[in-house]
Amino acid sequence: MKDILSKLNKAFESRVRLGIMSVLVVNDWVDFNTMKYLLEATDGNLASHLKALELKELIEMRKQFVGRKPKTSYRVTHTGRQLFKQHIEALENLINNQ
Question: pLDDT tens across 36-49, in order?
């Protein structure tokens, strides 16, 4: 049991971070407003979790202008995808060993 718990990644313990990664692993780029809608998160809460994942290089950000409006989008990095997969496998092992 202790070995299984050690394989859980603290970067994904938050409901919002788990949601962010779940959305990003199945989509190429997702913009901030879509992410906010899907996760039912506030601007500040979502932004802080995105920044934390970005600082750990688990996701990357792209800023562009659509017309005259700025649009910020995110995608998972290769490292982020691998670590998230390991985290999900650890959760599955935890559930299956109960």
Answer: 999 999 999 999 99
Nearest to 74 by CA among 86, 91, 59, 64: 59
Domain boundaries, the chain: 2-96
Beta strands 30-31 and 59-66, pairing class: unpaired
Which pTM does this prediction carry? Answer: 0.89
- Tens of pLDDT, residue by residue over 3-38, are 667 778 999 989 999 999 999 999 999 999 999 999
Q: Which CATH topology does 2-96 take? A: Arc Repressor Mutant, subunit A (1.10.10)
